Structure prediction request, 587 residues.
Amino acid sequence: MDKVMSNKRIIALYVLPSLLLILAIVYIPIVLTGYYGLNQWNGIGAMKFIGLDNYQALIKDKMFWNSAGHSLMLAVFSTLSLILYLVIAMVLSAKLKGVNFFRKIYLIPMLLSSVAIAQLWLKIYHPTNGILNSFLESIGFANPPAWLAESSLVLFALFIPILWQYAGFYILIYYAALKNIPASLEEAAKIDGANAFQIAYKIKLPLAMEVIKVTIVLAVVGSLKYFDLIYVMTDGGPNGSSEVMASYMYHQAFRAYDFGYGSAIGFFLLIICLIVTWIIRKLTATKDTIQYS
Amino acid sequence: MMPGTAGQLRNGNKSSGAWIASKLGYSVLYIVLSVVAILQIFPLVWLLFFSLKNNQEVFNLPPLSLPMNPRWENYEKVWSAGNIDVYFFNSVWITVVATVLTIVLGSLVTYAITRLKWKGSSFVLGLFMVAMMIPVHSTLIPLFSIFNKIHLIDHPLSLILSYVAFNMPITIMILLGFYYALPREVEEAAVIDGCSVNKIFFRIVLPMTGSVIATTGIINMIYNWNEFIFVNTFISSDAYKTLTVGVQNFIGQYTTDWGAIGATLMISILPILIAFLFLSDRIVEGIAAGSVKG
Prediction:
């Protein structure tokens, strides 16, 4: 058995195509991003090695810190919205009829492309003909704002479709986790006189903690690299008030043709994502995992 | 006495007030769930409605009024005039090719990791899993310059290679749990009968993984169908663009015709919605499997 299963040629044949592909498309580019970041380069001409100049410029770049701040706000907002998703999943996990139907309906927005969602919400937010302002006017607001054109409102206006897009995804994850909790625990608690809130808070929440940690990592890292929807809806505007790290990188590289500087931002983004993942995992690490079977 | 019956007895002793309270509680829960469902679905219903109207009807009639004479010509118009037909077929074939490749390559690797005996297997698995944490954007500039050097910019292969590589980790992760759970007895018997590894994999193992392949296939298709940033960066000619970017450009040119925009968006999301209608359980299962284990 072992002899057949350790045939080197077969192993190479099975593993190498995927391994080479992921090295070529993911790992080598990561190393190159770090290297390009040390150069002055417009993407076409010759590269000029300039050491850490790009990174020094990055530290002094107010626009960059603005965009990093927006990414951070998005991360905080997304993490907070997890609470809402968890509550909805808790409601779903109560033994109700038609739960499957609701769960599937919630999931639909996340199946759609960010471009389609962005275009749809552009129409919802349209200052004069959009459904939101038509509604606000009909209930008596004389001059509703142009949501995406005002620096003070634009981030908030972008949060709403993001909340809408990911609701089903997180609700589904939480629901699956809550369903995994054996019914016997809940029944035992009921016999001991626990009410629905106590069961949710003292039993379901702690047992779903592992999954909650995973979703926090997903939400934070997802927010830090968020791009598509913002790129389509506002392109970072007005005046950079909705620029995030990924869109700033894109603009520097593919609009300003500063590939060196863009790469420095890309490398920074990578490091931030890896560090944040590591920190969250450390902070939320439990010493003893809960067994419930 | 069983614990369950004790609970039921105690509940049974409660007054009818408690019964009404619990009925009320359930109604509140249903109201919460319904409000969320309406919020999730409402923008899409509005989109469907305005895709069947002209501008005058969109702006002058109440938003949720049914289109009096559904204007299917909106769909006809954009299907050919906006190049949407070309983008649509590009999306279809690129999605299918990338998905099939990802599943075939992913299955081979997963089999090698879970069943074959070799030294670097856990290291290689680690490489795939760490890749899941790497933001696509951090690889974008080097990928652009690499593809540029080997003349794959504005070539569908640049998309296919990127899709396969970036979807490989999640695909392997979903497959992994399934492969670990597969019984080994059949394979052992096959080895004793003198079967080769290839025969075992293609004749025995692969056919046993049909259900998980369907799940990963759906997940891959949704990702590939909706992918935006690679197409936007690597592809410049209309002949190779996919729907996400094509839709974006088309709408950029016709910002005022809401019916046409609605029809374009509907065309771009319909295939996924139809797939969802038939395969929703698989999709739900796949998304749950793919994320919870992370």
About this structure: Chain A has a mean pLDDT of 90. The longest helix of chain A spans residues 62-93. Chain A touches chain B through 96 residues (CB under 8 Å). Chain A has 14 helices and two strands.
